[in-house]
Amino acid sequence: MRPKGAALGKVSRPSLPGILRRKRLFALLDAARERPVAWVAGPPGCGKTTAVASYLDHAGIDCLWYQLDEGDADVATFFYYLGLAAAERGKGAPLPLLAPEYHAGGLGVFTRRYFQSLYARMKPPFAIVFDGYYDVPAFSQFHTVMREALAELPRGGCAIVVSRGDPPPELARLRASRSLGVIGWDELRLTREETDSIARQRRPDLKGAALEQLYARTQGWAAGLVLMLEQAKTPGAIAEAPDLATSQVVFDYLAGEIFQKTDGGTQELLLRTACLSQMTAEMAETLTGDPRAGRILADLHRNNYFVTLRQARPEPVYQYHPMFREFLLARIQETLPKERRRQVQKAAADAMEHAGQTEEAFALYRESHQWEEMVRTIGAHAEAMLAQGRGETLARWAEDFPPEVRDRHPWVAYWAAESQAQLAPREGRVLYEKAYELFRAQSPADLTGMALAASRKAPRHARAHSSQSDDADFHWAFSCRAIL
Length: 484
Description:
Blueprint: H1 23-32, E1 37-41, H2 48-59, E2 62-67, H3 75-88, H4 101-105, H5 107-120, E3 126-131, H6 142-151, E4 157-163, H7 172-176, E5 180-183, H8 185-188, H9 192-202, H10 208-218, H11 222-231, H12 237-240, H13 247-260, H14 264-273, E6 279-280, H15 281-288, H16 293-302, E7 307-311, E8 317-320, H17 322-335, H18 338-354, H19 358-367, H20 371-387, H21 391-399, H22 403-406, H23 410-420, H24 425-441, H25 447-455, H26 467-483
Parallel strand pairs: 1-4, 1-5, 2-3, 3-4
Antiparallel strand pairs: 6-8, 7-8
């Protein structure tokens, strides 16, 4: 069963109002689609996602959009959410989950069959977009999975990958065979004409000298342009703005200037919701207690206040521009005492969990040191995650506890053992034994936990045992029978 709001905007194409139709860039993307893979890479705030989303509106082709994040390092999580995206298309049986047995040696076969089935549900010409590739850690199996997935693209299909840097080494073969084309910062950079067009849309009163200053300052950086246009509402502000040599410094400066000029209710909403990677109006209202929250978010989006609409139906899902969100989070660090920060994070985590964003919620619980909430979250979701093949994520959750906290909660050790039972039987056996001892050490002893840990203990591999090993196994079996 699909959890409530499980994907939010993860599988929805973003929407922004008043976007310039960049015909020059559209022509480059048309040419890039003649190859199986188009790699779109540039620095933060250069308009990568906006360009690809507006291009797909322009091209009018079948499209599937997938927003990557660090959680996709667990490839079972990647397959799970991509399956949700495919299910929304309403064609064919559900795509399979990645069972633990495929991790050992059958991941390549599973990946090829999975993507063959996914591509068969799309009508050529089509594009599948993987946005935010830079968020996936370099050590993950994900990059090998992507190599297999991209190699299966049929004629008429294209993958558009949005990232901040070059393709990883795993995709070198695609690049060498000219199956992957790159559109980089030089192509994404706004031209003088594009800069003037955007400026005139937002500030029709700006004339030649001011427009020239804008282009000289921003050098085609889209986020910098938008910020400076906001700043230019104050006479002479363009000339006073700092140099754009360090874009993050400028962003912090200008975002601060804009933030300070908003009303108190908007500032409160921005700070209270900054911990959310994406949100609905209901989530924002719950966090702020402000019934105007939905209207404020809609106004921010409509006015291009660094708020993206990730999906419109069945309800709007909003997302802050990554750089603007960084500014807001830094603002929280600077202005709120530690205990108040943790309260804000806890409230945001509760909202994310209620919306089905369990991974995001768990990360916020961890950041705010809400150990009891982390234990509860593992207990509530572990079985479903194991059924979805997401044992790697579950194991990582268990590792996130400080040792002294983990030892107070034997169920954490038990679910860690469950996550390892098939992937790493030896490690699973050790964790089952640890969980058993922790259950037994409680006062009173947790007999249910002891029984489960004893009965689930991973069997030894067939080999010659020493008499000491046989004796340990005998006492273990005896304990299991006594409890049961």
